[in-house]
Amino acid sequence: MVSGNSAVIRKALLDSLSLPAFILLSTMMGFGSLARSTGFTPEMAALATAFIWGLPGQLAMVELTATGQGVIAIVFACSLANARFFPMVVSFIPAMSREKSGFAALILYAQLLSINSWAMCLKQFPHIDPAYRRLYYVVFALTILCAAVAGTLLGYHVSAVLPRPLVLGLIFLSPLFFALVLSAVSGACERASLLLGCAVVPVAHQFFPAVDLLLTGLIGGSTGFLLGRITHVKRILS
Amino acid sequence: MTTETLWIIVLGCSAATFAWRLLGVAVVRKINPEGAIFRWITCVSYAMVAGLVFRMLMMPESELASVSLAIRFGAVAIAFAAYFLFSRRLVAGVVAGGLSLSALVHWFS
After folding, report:
1. Chain B contact for A172 (CB, 8 A cutoff)
2. Mean pLDDT, to the nearest integer, of B35-45?
3. Quick one: pLDDT at residue A66?
4. For position B107, what pLDDT does the model report?
5. A222, B53: Cβ pair inside 8 Å?
6. Alpha-carbon distance B78 to B87, whole Å?
7. Which end of chain A has fewer CB atoms < 10 Å from its terminal CB, N or C?
8. What is the mean pLDDT of each run of 10 residues along chain A (238 residues)?
9. ∠ CA B55-B61-B62, rounded to 5°
């Protein structure tokens, strides 16, 4: 178990720079190039990465702006695409620390959360002294945030010269990475919810595209929660 | 669109995303992390993230939509094969998947 300020900071830097920072750098290059072709300035693109900090919402923003939608419709679509942050914050913070944190600290933790830090930190927390998990998370999240902003600016300025197969490969890395990380999640309820999420989303997307992820979360998660409590299912999934 | 409108969009989207995070903070201060409601919300977050990742890979709306489903599916399969072959090393899966997608696009489309 890793403990102590310097050891935890070193581990957070190593873990984030080994792969997650690279994934975000390449993914956000894709976002940067899209933002440019839609007419956003580099400052806007970098700010969007830093403050929205959720790629599906950022993509919704850029794609709807490109099709000339109204401001309200764009903001609403971005909000729906990023609604997952509500359950993610609720599930993540107690897993990180059972101690009471101040309101300002909680806001910081919530704002820094992304699928990447959520999945990777939940995976690493068992190896880290509980008293140092918050430090680990903040260092990890800030490192990948810096990589993401750098990637956005890089993509904004250079992606026009990259060959198309390579750009597509880069955009593909991010969901692929999450799929691999999530395949290692343990716990019957969690695994059932993951599988059901994949099963529900095509149907939800077909009939209710605007709220497909909300429906997927509610239906897949609730069913997974109930199924995971049945002993027989528990045995199959774990 | 004008520069002002684009700025309003960026700031509006940031605020709209932050609202969900803030709601999460409000609930996390009230909730018992040992209780059933917490477990349920955790499951909802897993299902939402899984659905999102599945949608990004199999039903993309971004530039990836121009890549055929067969190529995307093949690259995901290669990524998982490499991941398990190299004793669950994430980097092996990611590199194999990304390279195979690029190569398949280069050769077949």
Report:
1. yes
2. 92
3. 87
4. 92
5. no
6. 14
7. N
8. 93 95 90 88 96 92 88 93 94 90 94 94 93 96 97 88 80 90 90 96 93 94 91 68
9. 115
Separation of alpha carbons B65 and B61, rounded Å: 6
Q: What percent of chain B has pLDDT over 70?
A: 100
Nearest CA in chain B to A227: B43
Helices (H), A19-125: 20-38, 42-52, 55-66, 71-81, 85-96, 103-112, 115-124
Q: What is the pLDDT of residue A238?
A: 63
Rg (CA), chain A: 19
- Closest chain B C-alpha to A58 CA, distance in angstroms: 8
In sequence order, which residues have a C-beta less than 8 Å from that of residue B106 and are 6 or more positions away? A165
Strand partners, A101: none
Q: What pLDDT, on a 0 to 100 scale, did the predictor assign at position A97?
A: 87
How does DSSP classify residue A66? H
The rounded distance, in Å, linking the Cα atoms of A12 and A112 is: 14
Across the range B17-39, mean pLDDT stands at 93
What distance in Å separates residue A35's CA from the closest CA in chain B?
A: 11
φ, ψ (nearest 5 deg) of residue A2: -80, 135
Q: Select from A32, A29, A12, A30 the least CA-distant residue to A20.
A: A12
Determine the distance from the C-alpha atom of residue A120 to the mean position of all C-alpha atoms in its chain, rounded to a whole number. Answer: 10
Q: Which of A164, A214, A217 is nearest to A33 (CA)?
A: A164
CB contact under 8 A, A41 and B61: no
Which of B53, B67, B68 best tests the A interface by mutation, with the highest count of A CBs <10 A? Answer: B53
Dihedral angle sign, alpha carbons of residues B63, B69, B71, B77: positive
Q: Are the beta carbons of A91 and B41 separated by less than 8 Å? A: yes
Integer-rounded Cα radius of gyration of chain B: 20
